[in-house]
Amino acid sequence: MTVVALSGGVGGAKLALGLYRALPANSLTMIVNTGDDFDHFGLRICPDLDTALYTLAGINDPEHGWGRRDETWTLMRAMESLGGDTWFRLGDADTALHVLRTHRLRSGASLSSVIDEIRSRLAIAADILPMTELAVGTMVDTDAGEIAFQDYFVRRRCEPRIRAIRFAGAAVATMTAQVRAALACETLQAIVLCPSNPYLSIDPILAIPDLRAALERRRVPLIAVSPLIGGAAVKGPTAKIMAELGIESTPAAIAAHYAGLIDGLVVDSADADAASRIPLPVFATPTLMKTLEDRVRLARFVLARARELTVRGRPR
Ligand code: FO1
Fold first, then answer.
1. What is the position in ligand 1's atom list of the atom closest to the CA of 153?
2. Which amino acid residue places its CA nearest to atom 13 of ligand 1?
């Protein structure tokens, strides 16, 4: 049995870790957003892929969710003293990964192969796949003009008001061969949309035309987990962005956003009454993931509910 999880960064990786621990070894494949990737000081930075690697390896910073635990910051202090930019905080150990990846990519390696090399080094028994090998960049149109993702998210702390979001390059991008194989795998049992920001983190994955088409052709249930708890996001700007885009921050709006794609939605117990307004199977359970036990419990719940679902419009 294998399970595919589509994920962005911190929130999605929490559930992915639960799935990783709940499933037998080598049963989980993560398809990860690369719309946040960017070049900084000449280094290729892939935040969501690195968050997936560090989280599944158990070496992520538990406070921020991104970066490594027990990190040191000599590089950033030296950078500051030299007058360099410090708005994007690169830890010393984390930077080793950015340097190695950049070196490998410049030597002609694919991003998929570099991530797989690191995955193997970190002894992770799950596949971690970039959604595409091609450049896709999340661009945020705001009242301060159009801004690249990290500039909006980190440098400007999501403060500008969002008017629209686009994924530059997505229309001509294609999924990787590994993503295609994972979605066509004979032993695939379920596909999970992790509780990442739907607009900034899951949409870039869904914007790749052949990847979306493969999801639509699936023969297995696709279940999403709402990132909202009682109308607010646990962390990050999901609710703020929904308000700015004129969307109510409710599970019904999340279900509508994924309409035509998902077979069921997991919502927090605080949102249990949303079910009556959603034309899909809705399952309520506590979705706040503070501990590893919370992550594994939610993962088991999601897998059990996925087993009960039928794929819309098609017999299984
Ligand atoms: N997020 C921040 O809010 N501030 C940072 O300084 C920061 C540095 C950083 C370094 C490496 C890395 O892999 C991720 C980092 N992130 C940081 C997270 C990153 O911006 C992610 O794209 C977002 O969390 C969205 O997933």
1. 20
2. 47
Report the predicted TM-score, pTM, of the whole model to 2 decimal places.
0.97
For 198-212, letters b (16+ CB in 10 Å) and e give: bbbbbbbbbbbeebe
Instruction: Render pLDDT for 260-295 as a digit per residue (tens, 0 to 9).
Output: 999 999 999 999 998 889 999 999 999 999 999 999
List of residues 6+ apart from 90 with CB closer than 8 A: 40, 41, 43, 45, 75, 76, 98
- Ligand 1 centre from 35 Cα, in Å? 13
- Report the alpha-carbon distance of residue 46 to residue 43 in Å, rounded: 10
What's the pLDDT at 315? 44
Q: In this structure, is the dihedral angle defined by the CA atoms of residues 182, 183, 187 and 192, taken in order, positive or negative?
A: positive
Please list, in sequence order, all residues whose beta carbon lies within 8 angstroms of the beta carbon of residue 273, skipping any fewer than 6 positions away: none
Check residue 316 and give its pLDDT. 46
Alpha carbon separation from 92 to 70, 99, 235 (Å, rounded): 10, 11, 25
Interior angle at CA 283, CA 282 and CA 288, nearest 5: 125
Residue nearest to atom 23 of ligand 1 (CA): 9
Ligand 1 centre and the CA of 316: distance in Å? 40
* Structure confidence by residue, pLDDT tens digits, 175-232: 999 999 999 999 999 999 999 999 999 999 999 999 999 999 999 999 999 999 998 8
Residues lining ligand 1, Cβ inside 6 A: 8-10, 36, 45, 47-48, 50, 66-67, 88-90, 94, 150, 153-154
CA of 220 to the centre of ligand 1 (A): 33
Q: Which domains does the chain have, with CATH numbers?
A: 2-142+167-308 (3.40.50.10680)
Q: How far is CA 129 from CA 96, 133, 249, 280, in A?
A: 20, 10, 30, 29
- What backbone torsions phi and psi does residue 180 show, to the nearest 5 degrees? -60, -45
